[in-house]
Amino acid sequence: MTQGRNGISLAPGGGRRRMWIARRLSMVAAMFVIAALVAGTAGSSYAGKKKASSSGDPGLLDTVVVSNNGAVFAGSLETFPVGSGPLAHPQFLVRGTNTFLGASGGPVGDAVSSLDGHIAVAIPLDFIDLTASLGPPVGCGPFGQPAASPLFGTGLVEIFGDSSTGNSAPEVEICSPNFSVGAPNTTGIFYPQGVGFEDPFDGLHPGHEILAVANNFPEVVQDAEICAGSGLTASSLGTITLYDRTTFTQGLNNNPPFVNNPIAAVNPFTLAAYTQNSSIGGCLTSLAGPINVQFDQNGFLFVVNNAGLFAAALAALPRFVSVFQPDAALTTEAPFSRGDIFPVALIGIAGTETAGDILQPVGEAVLTMGFEDDLLFVTDTGDNSIKIFDPFTNPDILIGFAFAGELEGVIHGGSTKLKGPEGTALSADGDTLYVVNTDDDTLSMFTDIINDTDGGDIPPTLIIKSRHSKMSLPTGVAVLGQFTPTPTPSATSTPSEEARSGE
Prior knowledge:
By secondary structure, this protein is mainly β. The protein has one domain: 6 Propeller (Neuraminidase), CATH 2.120.10. It is built from four helices and 29 strands. The protein has helices at residues 19-22, 25-41, 224-230, 497-501; strands at residues 63-68, 76-80, 92-94, 109-112, 119-123, 156-160, 172-175, 192-197, 210-220, 236-244, 251-253, 263-266, 273-276, 290-295, 301-305, 320-324, 345-347, 361-370, 373-380, 385-390, 395-396, 402-403, 406-411, 421-426, 432-437, 442-447, 455-456, 462-464, 474-480. It has a five-stranded mixed β-sheet with strand order 4-5-6-7-11, with no helix packed on it. Strand 4 (109-112) and strand 5 form a beta hairpin. It starts with 18 loop residues before the first helix and ends with a helix.
């Protein structure tokens, strides 16, 4: 997960690089399911008051939230306050049977609300019912069902208060139960890998708080005629779903997306076609296993795509970052059907300016400096680096004149101490970059980052690393603290009831 200047946090890919050590059974199952699908169906954010740590070391300049995938049913969510030093204990630590953080899928990232500091966490869950008897007494999918029950969960999102700790139950769960036995996947959530809050002050949805979820499944097969005419394949992998948090009630919510554009998909259990709720999905989207989402301060939606991260058999699949225009889910202009829209930028596509620059992208953070004037920070586990891009440059005919972006710099080398970097986040002023390292169970802080956009072998100002930190396969990081809204840009209309229902 990452958090941008606009108070939006995103989830990273989730501890996948050490799955041969502590990978959950659901992840192993996911590799085979994805392989079967491909082969068979082919601006401001939070920033706390800054201060130095009492020990004299350069402590954290912001209050930081970390999500941990955890080793063997030990996922957690923890908060480190401003001033925390290298041997810091978390101020708050959420884990236990009242949450799904310890589910077999484990948390893979989190997002922080810019309105009230609530924390959303993406949890893929075990959707082939391998751990039906291990969950809390109530919930979604296999959890709360008899061990022999043939019911499956497709993942969920949990939302916690900013001071939740211990065995705290989430205030909200977004989940679709019983998918495999015919009940519809109402929420559209399907093996979620990333979450991100839209900046509530960008003027797009006044009075609403929009949460985006990156769903690694399903395979989408709609609009084959349009796709064939465009020269694209007639399928894509994954969707983006958008939810209005202000409409959620306490407890389980099996609600459709805020903007619902149902799509034709393939059921991974039966390989039969079915209709899945979605906000952004379809072959024109070019989605290829989305694992991270991030809004910039103007409402542009950045998506990290990396289906090949799950299995060596998928190593040839493309890895790139796509960028969708504000309110892409509502676009109806030809030739697009609503929700099936081509990105305005595709960064890392073969044959373009940035081809080959991205190896194994997982996390991202966006610094907004103006309209279509961003810096994009991408964590790359392929070479233990952070790639820095100007996303809105180099329009390329190969990708329909979408922007191909330009690589501005790379943070890489022995001094960086990056080891399996996944989640990344920026402070409100954009000058402090936070990164969690899954292979090293550490949290790194890089300062004066605006002056280091060329990258290089730069050392972190602070590394939190100790048994006291309780970090275990950390996958996401976000910044939490006092939020000050910026002037609201020119507003657009709020989606109508028909738009939200998909009618």
